Queue: 2 jobs
Job 1
Amino acid sequence: MNNRYENFPILLFSTVKLSISVQEMSIKGDERPSEYIVKESKFGAIESYLELGQIPIIDAIGHGISSSFLDKIREAAKQFFELPVEEKQRYSREIYGGREGYGVDAIVSEKQVRDWSYRLILRVFPEDQRRLNLWPENPNDFGEVVHEYAIEVKFMMDVLFKAMAKSLNLEENSFSHKLSGEQAQMIARFNFFPTCSRPDQVFGVKTHTDGTGLTVLLQDKEVEGLQVLVDGKWVRVAIVPHAIFVNLGAQMQIMSNNDIFKSPLHRVVTNPERLRLSVALLNVPDPETEIGPVEKLIDETRPRIYKNVKNYSSINYKCFQRGEVALETLKI
Ligand SMILES: O=C(O)CCC(=O)C(=O)O
Ligand SMILES: [Fe+2]
């Protein structure tokens, strides 16, 4: 990897049909629930500045995961979301509390516009922190597939952390020792987007930056939806078969002292005809670890931009739900 990617924060790493018939959520005629409707957006209207952009592709190492295995992950996710509602409710976030489990996002702010999506959120690492009562038993290989995939993704992330450090002439563990320690978390977020008859008014995921170090995203193979803000314009991320998207999270931006590795604002639009599915694996540093700009990236010409912070991902989540950008709150 080298610095020519610096202005384009999503990287295409290298391998990725869904015909899901389940549809619990639908917008019909005037029954549109108002809490989903985007009334104003400082980030630009839903249909603003749509352009098709090119995503930088890193093919030097490839992700090394077979496309048949990637299909298996999508298939496991699809099978789970296709289960009857009552069965999915067994894993409901509302029953067990906290952020993990199945459901729509909790309302945490009066300003919150709801996302047109269902999520299944599971902590995969550290392994002894798994809440296995929330892990689907159907399909019966779900847990095994997720476990295996998470190991591959962790390996990939560690390669990336090192390569990114080296590309800045830093010691190779400069990012990983903070972002990827033993207590670092890997969160699996399965996103399921039902069809929506008003894609002009409703987002699948509203504008946000990921509160992670890195996010590894397995996209739907057929249905587009992800958009990234590049130089003030929303760019559609086209589907590239067999590829995995790597999204730089805000904690990487903090560590790189802002101007090197930027965490992109991105959003997911809804689709009136087709269901969509994505699987994001999130690298979340240990909440007890203080994250801040790497000392060697601070000097007279590049003063420190961010304060040090612990448990940034929870700050990021609250700001996301209020429609705010959490990184702004850390600026010196
Ligand atoms: O569905 C996608 O393509 C992206 C989802 C996303 O941005 C997220 O889960 O943070
Ligand atoms: Fe995201």
Job 2
Amino acid sequence: MTARALLGERLVIASHNPGKVREIEALLTPFGIEVVSAGTLELPEPEETGHTFAENAALKAETAAESSGLAALADDSGLVVPALDGAPGIYSARWAGPDKDFSHAMERVNRELGESRDRHAYFVCALALARPGEEIRIFEGRVDGVLLWPPRGERGFGYDPMFLPDGRSESFGEMDPAEKHAISHRARAFRDLDSWLRKTE
Ligand SMILES: O=c1nc[nH]c2c1ncn2[C@H]1C[C@H](O)[C@@H](COP(=O)(O)OP(=O)(O)OP(=O)(O)O)O1
Ligand SMILES: [Mg+2]
């Protein structure tokens, strides 16, 4: 797949999470690509049966590309806590249950950590880019930090209020979105995508 082909087309953002779609739209702005979300096109939400972030991202991008006939970009991401053997990891969304209750998911993370002295965690983002009938591409990013309790801030989404990125004094829930976009796992995956686009131009 070439950058030229991609840049001349409409791109589906293959995500049903409004917090993510908002961030992806902001991160895509400099690329000047016309985007449409999976929700707007009423695309189905596929079951995430993969065992890795990359597999689930690929599955979501391929499903969206096939059902829309357009190029599609999917994001599979999550919070990895080494002291919890990597949980919630690819199950990060599922820990919030059908009501997407992240206060409950954050409480579970904190409860399972208990008195553990190791509160290190990182977010991972795998982006998958698919065009109908073409080989899929994966881009990845990660950001390290520590888990706070109680959670802080109302901005962002998901586990943001309990995540303090290394070297910062504000949680992702407190930060201005532009600051999160400068350092987040998602921003780093976009940098990876950007350097690939430049190479293939
Ligand atoms: O920057 C982030 N800040 C806070 N929490 C985050 C972030 N990035 C991922 N997360 C957590 C919450 C999210 O729900 C889950 C991803 O799960 P994941 O399956 O990739 O997304 P999702 O089900 O919410 O939407 P969709 O699959 O339609 O793209 O990890
Ligand atoms: Mg999902």
